[in-house]
Amino acid sequence: MANKSLQSALEVAECPVEMLRQAGGRWTWPREVAREYTNWMDELRATRETCVLADLSHHQMDQVIEGPDAFDVLNHLSTNSFDGFDVGKAKQAIMCNPDGYFIGDGVLQRIGEEKFVMSGKVPAAHWVAYNIETGGYDVEQTIYPKSSKNPDDPYFFTYQVQGPNALDVMQELVDDDLTDIPFFNFKRITIAGEEVRALRHGMAGEVGFELQGSYEHSDLIKDVILEAGADYGIKRLGTRAYEPLSVKLGWVTTHVPAIYTGAEMREYREWLDADSYEGTYSIGGSYSAEEISGYYVSPIDLGYDHMVTFDHDFVGKEALKAEVTNPERTRVTLVWDDEDAAGLFASLFQDERLPHKIFDLPRDRWGAHHDEVLSDGDVVGISKSFAYSYSDRQMISICSIDTEYSEPGTEVTLVWGEKNGESPNPTVESHTQTEISATVQPSPYLEDSR
Q1: What's the domain range around 189?
Q2: Does the pTM exceed 0.85?
Q3: pLDDT digits (tens, 9 = 90+) for 19-46
Q4: How many Cβ atoms are within 10 Å of 244's Cβ, its own excluded?
Q5: How far apart are alpha carbons 298 and 262 in whole angstroms?
Q6: What does the angle CA 397 – CA 37 – CA 192 come to, to the nearest 5 degrees?
Q7: DSSP state for residue 33 in the 8-state scheme
Q8: CATH number of residue 237's parent domain
Q9: Which of 16, 86, 94, 262 ranks highest by number of CB atoms within 10 Å?
């Protein structure tokens, strides 16, 4: 019996918004990586003061794309320019639907003339796989899912060495000079006799590296990195400390993919399974649109203007051409008022009403969180990924905001908690909705030394 499709599930549910609000659950990290190796505060300090080793091997998918038409299909689906995209280069590939709304992204590396690897969350990979299968391209692709959905070991190990001492640690491991690798380029290096791709990266705002190689060598590579980093204060980064890093960088890691509406996307919805990532994704927050399209965002909303170029034909080009000349929204950081943020936790000790909605520090493991941002009572933006920044001692979030309110220093109000304090998601406790004062600041929200 064939799997039930996403399209058929949507027809039964009738309302995509309610289907995703009722999905239930939060992001679950694979058991192979600890939540904390020491404690999350010391691990976060190490990202800013010494260096860390993070293991991404188990929580992201890797998609291998190979064949004579591989470049063409990726070029057709990505908003990025592929001019000069030679072997040894990487990019954050941005993919949209025909109306210019965001489907997904991934770190795309060109590892051969006809071979690419894309890593990250799976929506972009599904879109690529569908277009290869239905578009007549001479390409083969394989998606290697995250380990919680994969009975075998991951295809690659993926380690990040990040922090101000990251370059020194890496130079201890290799004879090659790593200072000549430009940002988001990679170099094939040898560590402990094994070939590794070293991608210049920077999740901590410093020169850093993402290392990928055959998973059979994962333990060996991990051990030699930790040994080399011992004199440089290296710490293993647990998932709890890894989660907030993306918020300061301005990278919203989870979105509602723009696939649930439109006749042009129907065949894709019929191709996707009902139990796919797209069919089981969970949304929450004070913002609640009647139509699922109210959750769609464009790359411009996300501050990805620099990754939208019109030197090639790509899906969504005409819609984005019209938007980029007069964008309605852009990306900023919201810095929450300290007393208001602390008041969320203080409410746990007040008897007269239900507490406010509570989250895990330093970042809650939600799916797509959407909270209303107001000015004089009008919705002017949507707050998304939020986290406690230990280095700043502040609560911050990433916000897509109307451009007229994007000036640093602008004061706005964030509505925190679901309407009436209730959610169909069983992981959300009954609570009292509240408002939090916030100040607009730039995104990324860190000194970028990458």
Answers
A1: 40-59+150-249
A2: yes
A3: 998 876 566 677 889 999 999 999 999 9
A4: 23
A5: 16
A6: 110
A7: S
A8: 3.30.1360.120
A9: 94
